[in-house]
Automatic annotation (TrEMBL):
Organism: Smittium culicis
Location(s), subcellular: Endoplasmic reticulum membrane
Keyword Membrane belongs to the record: yes
Protein name: sphinganine-1-phosphate aldolase
Membrane topology: Single-pass membrane protein
Cross-referenced Gene3D superfamilies: 6.10.140.2150, Aspartate Aminotransferase, domain 1, Type I PLP-dependent aspartate aminotransferase-like (Major domain)
Enzyme class: lyase
GO function terms (MF aspect): pyridoxal phosphate binding; sphinganine-1-phosphate aldolase activity
GO BP annotations listed: carboxylic acid metabolic process; sphingolipid catabolic process
Essential cofactor(s): pyridoxal 5'-phosphate
One cellular component (GO) term of this entry: endoplasmic reticulum membrane
């Protein structure tokens, strides 16, 4: 009997030992892959929960799940085309507005090189007419920011200085040694303005965005060289300027965004410190930030930076020629500049020169992203600094900040509005604390000739006060009250425009359609 069983067993088609090993290896590989991805998810969740808290991390996961579901929903036949249709309507509206604002003066478009060049009179005539296109009169002081010093005498001086240096280029200091001196003097004046140490240095750039990009690059190179950081991250508040997103995108740096305190509008210091790790190259704060005009706790942030052995950049682009003069103008503010231990860069960053000795064109050195730069702008900057002088900047600072205070007090007297954060300098942001859509109020203000800045997260508006704003405060407050009454009386009239676009942005779980709209807006800038 046993013999028969053994013989029948020999005839069974059992898998070989080699096959069994292969199956076990495949199972093991699958399990390892599952463990790997599970561990990654658990690690990511744990890290975020440690920094942001359990409930906030769960909420962010919920938002990601909604976004994924929305993307899946767009694969349903007809859904994507419906969304694209709505996006195209908004983009078409941008194009029509751009073309409409440029066609009212009757000037023909110049889309090709003229066969025979225009004479000087015609050239200047076209330029002057196009300067007056549009419906918002910036000279009236009704525009948030944009033009920060509008005196005719000052403008004429700038034009003359720029005209003298209009063919110069700081890339060639041997050809234009006088321009090199102007550039060096501008940097020196600004360094002293921000109480730089004796060994401080800087450079002039094309603007705030390039300055921030240079600051990030400098801290990245320092971290690579001194700490061998290969997977860099940068820690900053959610209110930090979007130029940091651009810089991190350029250099493959993870931007860790830290929430702000709901009352003060300043970055949450406790969460910020938790977010810093061995790969953090720097932290960044604002003095003041663009959205709400709030200054982060720079002293606390710089102290953390020193303790962690990393850099600390202060983005002072918006408050640059106000913040350094606040104390002299009679306003008490916390320290934010190079007097604060741990602050390593402000606006124009202390950085190395980019040097490339292997370039076929010869040894090439340039202090900024751009090689060639218009020397005329450096000359114009120098002329502005020396003509206005310290006393001029102090007076301007006092007038502008007092203007912001007056506007803030007026907004606080309006029941339907509330101030966001704790404004300290020239910017005041406000939102609606009622059922009235703040973006609808903005559309009504546009009809009254105002160009306020639109914000989101939360929905809000702000005005960045300038020298031109001084004297318009009462009119602004009265127009705000009238706009609120108008929106209350005609809600349907103001259900479109920016109210519709920003409302859609807030309601969509996936921001891809919003990104398409912003790309469409950029395209519309080149409509003719």
């Amino acid at each position: 009997m046993l013999q028969k069983i053994l013989e029948s067993g020999r005839n069974l088609d059992f898998p070989s030992m080699e096959t069994l090993l292969k199956i076990d290896k495949m199972r093991l590989f699958g399990q390892l892959v599952l463990i790997y991805y599970s561990a990654g998810i658990i690690y990511s969740f744990g890290k975020d929960a440690l920094i942001y808290g359990f409930s906030e991390t769960i909420y962010q996961l919920y938002k990601k799940a909604l976004s994924t579901s929305f993307k899946a929903f767009q694969t349903v036949p007809g859904t994507k085309s419906l969304i694209d249709s709505e996006v195209n309507k908004i983009v078409k509206g941008f194009e029509e507005k751009m073309i409409d604002s440029a066609s009212k003066n009757g000037i023909e478009d110049t889309l090709e090189l003229p066969i025979i060049g225009f004479d000087p009179e015609k050239t200047i005539d076209i330029l002057e007419k196009r300067m007056n296109e549009g419906h918002i009169d910036w000279k009236s002081g009704r525009v948030s920011g944009t033009v920060y010093f509008g005196g005719l005498e000052h403008i004429n001086l700038m034009n003359k200085a720029i005209g003298i240096y209009n063919i110069t280029n700081p890339l060639h200091p041997d050809v234009f040694p006088g321009l090199r001196r102007l550039d060096a003097e501008v940097v020196s004046m600004v360094l002293r303005m921000f109480n730089s140490p004796e060994d401080g240095c800087g450079t002039t750039t094309s603007g705030g965005t390039e300055s921030i990009i240079m600051a990030v690059r400098a801290h990245l190179e320092k971290a690579k060289k001194e700490r061998n950081v290969t997977n860099p991250n940068l820690v900053a508040p959610v209110t930090i300027h979007t130029a940091f997103d651009k810089a991190c995108g350029y250099f493959n740096i993870e931007l860790i965004r830290i929430p702000i305190d709901s009352k003060s509008g300043k970055v949450d210091i406790r969460i910020l410190e938790k977010a810093i790790n061995k790969n953090t190259i720097m932290i960044a704060g604002s003095a003041i930030n663009y959205p709400h005009g709030v200054m982060d706790d720079i002293e606390a942030m710089a102290s953390i930076a020193m303790k962690k052995g990393i850099g600390m950049h202060v983005d002072c682009c918006l408050g640059s020629f106000l913040m350094p003069f606040m104390e002299d103008a009679g306003f008490k503010i916390p320290k934010f500049d190079f007097r604060v231990p741990g602050v390593t860069s402000i606006s124009c960053d202390t950085h190395k020169y980019f040097v490339c000795t292997e370039w076929p064109g010869g040894i090439y050195a340039s202090p900024t992203i751009a090689g060639s730069r218009p020397g005329s702008l450096i000359a114009g900057c120098w002329a502005a600094l020396v003509s206005i002088g310290k006393e001029g900047y102090i007076t301007s600072c006092r007038n502008i900040v007092n203007s912001r205070i007056k506007i803030q007090q007026g907004i606080e007297s309006i029941d339907e509005l509330e101030i966001i954060g704790e404004p300290i300098c020239s910017v005041v942001a406000f939102s609606s604390n009622s059922s009235i859509n703040i973006y609808a109020i903005n559309d009504a203000m546009k009809e009254r000739g105002w160009g306020l800045s639109v914000l989101q997260h939360p929905p809000a508006l702000h005005i960045a006060c300038t020298a031109l704003t001084v004297g318009t405060e009462d009119v602004l407050i009265q127009d705000l009250k009238s706009s609120i009454s108008e929106v209350k009386a005609n809600p349907e009239k103001y259900s479109k425009g920016s109210a519709a676009m920003y409302g859609m942005s807030a309601s969509l779980p996936d921001k891809a359609p919003v990104e398409d709209i912003t790309k469409g807006y950029l395209d519309s800038l080149y409509s003719t």
